[in-house]
Amino acid sequence: MNPSLPPRTGPGTAAPSAAAASAAASAAATATAAEAAHERGHGIGSAHAKAILFGEHAVVYGAPAIAVPLHQLEVETRIRSTPGHELRIESELFAGTASSAPERLRPVITAVRAALAAVGRPDDQVQLRVRSAIPHGRGLGSSAAVAAAVARAAADLTGAELGADAFHEIVQQAERVAHGNPSGIDARAVAAAGPIRFHEGRVCATGVGAPLTFVLADSGRPGSTAEAVAGVRERRAADPVAMDRALAQLSELAEGSVLDLELGDRPALGARMLQAHELLGRIGVSTVRLDALVDAARAAGAHGAKLTGGGLGGCVLALADSEQQAEHIALALRAAGARRTWTTTVAAS
To answer: Which NCBIfam families does the UniProt record give (predicted)?
Structure first.
């Protein structure tokens, strides 16, 4: 975004104040950085993973959901101008042109084209490089995080400024290709600094009364959000009374967790997590392996544990009392079959 010209001084014009001069200098520095990115022909963007703490699946039907950031699982994208050449992608999954890319990369291609259009670039003659620490297909928002990082890289490339709504729509376009009917929570959570409450498209930050240490365990089997959402829809059509009851209870658990988070009440949060996992099993999105990991976390002393994300695979999230206990829980989860584990602490706010 180009800054306004600094005010002129002369007859009838007051000299700029120190504050105004400082603001002008700051704006000039921002513009210089943007121009440098444009001149060097590339832009950089990043985003992080997320975990759904409460509200999976119920959020699709208008219920609130709570998500926490996973800052240590990050994706970085770099977009470089390549005039006269077709859009090219370089990643661990694939290296080649967009026209030869596999189906699973369609959301990424959608994000690139939507982002470039949003920043006023008329073509997609660029190279996209993706470096991601977020495991794919684990319910951690990998597709949304890549799209968010792409949007930021496109803005950095051109020096454009993306508003919050435009940024969100870019990510949502990619998410529709990836998942069909996304709630929008992933698009918000992968760009949020802390825990958020998401309800019917609206998002607000959630206070945290005490540090919360979570252990994330990869079951080793990918899940499919689109498949899980479709399955819940089919079961709801077949048995609306039972399914709506379970979805309503998931909604109540999410709503009630806000106060527990604000108080930093680990035992209460853990109890809610266990209830939520039982309900997610009831609506058909848990698996024997996920259930075994939840049981292992409980046996190791976790306050609570549950699947996180769409289910049918993916990850389990367990709440520890401390970072030291988290190490013990992580060992127990790996012994129970977890492919890998991560520990993350959500800071008090």
So the answer is: mevalon_kin
Write down the pLDDT at residue 124: 83
CB 50 within 8 A of CB 70: yes
Burial 295-310 (b: 16+ CB within 10 A, else e): ebbbebebbbbbbbbb
Residue whose structure tokens are 């684990």: 138
Please list the rounded mean pLDDT of every run of 10 residues in the chain (349 residues).
Answer: 36 41 45 48 96 95 95 96 95 95 96 96 91 93 97 96 95 92 89 94 95 97 89 97 98 98 98 99 98 99 97 97 97 98 95
Query: CATH 3.30.70.890 residue ranges in the chain?
Result: 207-346
Task: Say how far apart CA 215 and CA 315 lie, in whole Å.
Answer: 10
Is 291 an annotated catalytic residue?
no
- Report pTM: 0.82
Quote the tokens at residue 141. Answer: 């928002």
Query: Of 186, 218, 260, 265, which residue is the catalytic one?
Result: 186
Query: Residue 166 corresponds to which tokens in the numbers above?
Result: 């435009």
Which whole-number Å values give the CA distances from 6 to 19, 30, 217, 249, 256, in the listed order? 12, 14, 54, 58, 51
Kindly report the CATH number that applies to the domain delimited by 207-346.
3.30.70.890
Residue 182 CA neighbour count, 13 Å, CB half: 26
Q: Which residue has the tokens 């498949």?
A: 227
Report the alpha-carbon distance of residue 26 to residue 4 in Å, rounded: 12
Where, residue-wise, is CATH 3.30.230.10 in the chain? 42-202
Element (H or E) spanning 253, and its range?
helix 240-263
